[in-house]
Design brief:
Blueprint (H helix, E strand, L loop, with lengths): L11 H13 L4 H7 L3 H4 L1 E4 L2 E4 L7 H13 L2 H9 L26 E2 L2 E2 L1 H20 L12 E5 L6 H9 L9 E5 L4 H8 L7 E6 L6 H18 L5 H4 E5 L2 H7 L6 E3 L16 H7 L1 H20 L6 H15 L4 E7 L6 H13 L17 E3 L11 H6 L6 E6 L9 H18 L3 H6 L7 H4 L7 E6 L4 H22 L10 H10 L15 H16 L1
Parallel strand pairs: 5-6, 5-7, 7-8, 8-9, 10-11, 10-12, 12-13
Antiparallel strand pairs: 1-2, 2-13, 3-4
Helix pairs in contact: 1-4, 4-14, 6-12, 7-12, 7-15, 12-13, 13-20, 14-20, 15-20
Bound molecules: glucose-6-phosphate.
Length: 546
Amino acid sequence: MKAQRARRTELSAWRALAEHASEIGGLHLRSLFTEDPERGERLSLEAAGLYLDYAKNRITDRTLRLLVQLAEASDLRAHIDAMFRGAKINVTEQRAVLHVALRAPRSASIRVDGRDVVPGVHAVLDRMAAFAERVRSGDWTGYTGRHIRNVVNIGIGGSDLGPAMACEALAHYSDRDLAFRFVSNVDGTDFAEATRGLDPAETLFVVCSKTFTTLETLTNARTARTWCLAALEDDAAVAKHFVAVSTNAAEVSRFGIDTANMFEFWDWVGGRFSVDSAIGLALMIAIGPSRFREMLAGFYAMDEHFRSAPFERNMPVLLGLLGIWYTDFLGARTHAVLPYDQYLRRFPAYLQQLEMESNGKSVDRAGQRVDYATAPVVWGQPGTNGQHAFFQLIHQGTQLVPCDFIGCCESLNPLGPHHDLLMANLFAQTQALAFGRLASELRAEGVPDTQVPHRTFPGNHPSNTILLPRLTPEALGALVALYEHKVFVQGAIWNINSFDQWGVELGKILAQRIAPELSSEAAPEPPHDSSTNALIQRFRRHRSGR
Ligand code: G6Q
């Protein structure tokens, strides 16, 4: 990869895009579609079983050409090659970024520091599969010999959002004799509610932590151990009711979990990119090893597409470039993700971390402050619910909110008219957003003049639509990989390190400092600013007055 070049805003493609944006800024999707009746088919693409319609974007062919030029001028191809060959592209932590190795076939070879990592990936997958089968078949029992009926995943951030999202997304394929719960928050309510009604003798905890030092996860894991041992009354029970997923064997055994019950992953897997590593153990127990492998095949199919397709026919590249177009050239500050599938309910929350933790950065790889916008705020809720809540703002508010609509052609729960109505709503929303409703149309329908401005829809609101044939493990894998690579593309073009997260560190350090100050034995006057001191004092007073 070439050394840092000119700052992004000095690239001729960047300048040309800025000029182009002012030229076509007012161009309406109505005219783009009128001028090109084939636009709907032309601006669409299929990859790894997913269909992307990107016709309802405020772009012309020239916009796309310039965006592709920007990708080329940003050395995107070299960045992609560097990731796939295991180069240490996480520059602030000097680590390779190799989530793609997690789904590479057994025959592949990917080297980090001269060592092929693929055999290790498959060895862990095989151990996970053997364990998952034992739990599913009842061969792995609890301490008292009872079958495991509940699996509780303890983890936070990347060690929670991925498995929680995927377990819900693939619930249709899940063993319904097993219940899956997720505990992430250090708020004791999370643990209390997740374990309410569960029998410790039938409960398996999967403690997921890359570092095994995370305060929330270790606090919850200790509480889980106490909860378990209060009922089972023998330390030996821990071995039957706790397994760990981590890179840190020393801390796992210090906690008291036998490392024979630990599933490994590696420092070249970022937390938010780890759902297809051993962090997905709860998911594998839920859906079984062969369906988990189908999911990996979906990831791999999208990886291969990303690695080999030309940029103008490359789905993650196009999604990344379109996002950059809106964020950096048309002033969008947020991006909505709207799954029209109840099983994908947690997908927006998952993407929030993937996109915002990866690309919510304001210095470039060399540590220089950037002079352009990076990641937008990602948000969303499933359709159709959002239509009856926040869609008003997208249709008639003052902000530009590009949207990704995600839907499935076939329902996993075909009930009467439900699926057709769901999908009709998805299609209708993208249509209403793009084309709006003109004042002249309203007047022609006899709407009184005073109401016309209120009932006019300006349109020209852009959206992508991603269609899955059916929500299968394979399709979910392809969908997650699509967004992983979109994030990668944007990070490369913004010239930022998408793979560190220093922004979460400061709060952790301050919380560790404040925790002992909340006790009544602490020094009477806490040593902080007046606001923080007053909050701590008020909390202490309330606590001592109880
Ligand atoms: C993800 C982040 C972060 C991480 C959590 C949990 O990319 O690094 O969300 O996953 O802080 O960390 P541990 O897995 O180390 O407990």
